[in-house]
Amino acid sequence: MEKLRTLEGKRVLVTGGTGSLGQTLVKRLLGGTGGLPERVTVFSRDEAKQHYMRLEFLHQNAATDDIIYTNSQDRLSFQIGDVRDRSTLVSALKDIDVVFHAAALKQVPSCEYFPFEAVKTNILGAQNLVSAICESDLPIETVIGISTDKACKPINVMGMTKALQERILIEANRERANTRFLCVRYGNVIASRGSIIPLFVEQLRQGRPLTVTLPEMTRFLLSLERAVDTVIAAYAEGIRGETYVPKVKAARIEDVARALAGDDDPPIEYSGIRPGEKIHEIMVSEEECFRTIERGDHYVILPVLPELRPSDPIEPVLSSEYSSKDNNISVGEIKELIKEGSGEIANFIAAKN
Question: Pick from 188, 202, 329, 351: most CB atoms within 10 A?
Fold first, then answer.
């Protein structure tokens, strides 16, 4: 494995930086995780989200926030733009060393109803990023694309577009020898915007039944901090063309609902599968197993293109797909997993139990 890389003194661009993952990543970068960057630029198209993020980051004054507060004033900047617009990307990428590409349309039903909008952001956006770097000969050192388990054996538009985003970024290693392109693939982030857990919390607060699609439905679960750990690990350790996958717990969604309910016993209503949903998610497919290795707390999928893989023989660590249907954790374990997180959801479940 190559020497661990550090972000010390790097100029970093985070596309989609106002999202749940983007904001947590920016906070960790400003706190010096993996080295303190010289500058962190948030690139997104929503000026309102940028405004409120700027207020949150620049006006923290609690003692525990001193490092982030100071670094926010000195190092954090914002740029309005859309990954659909290559010229704006070229401008944003000037004087940048590292790109964390988190911009995406990620809501499954929205992508089903507006599929070409997902294509324009998730696929063409990734191609615009690659083209901006290659055609303008920008000296970007590393690009890390943020993907999803839905990209593995995809059945919905969101997953299909993210699967192609992965391939576009990984293939870019063939044409750009001086830039390292990698991906990160992970499952459901606890408490991220639009996810099931905040919905359950809101339903419990309003005394409404909890809506579960099917009793057997399962998902991988991880905290925002664990997702960021995977991104940072991919940057520090990863080799060109690799896809990092965290080793995380999986659970039945019905058990997640019961864990959040605590001692209460609210009714559960089964609503059926939404457009484009899977019953179980897969992080590493059977077809990917033969080129999947292990590195610490992560599985690492080597590139599908043989010319990008190392010539030395490898020892695959998986003999079957890595699926959320297997080894599901108990209601008690789900409670502990959620409590390990931070913020409103962790406080909610602590109060219920």
Answer: 188
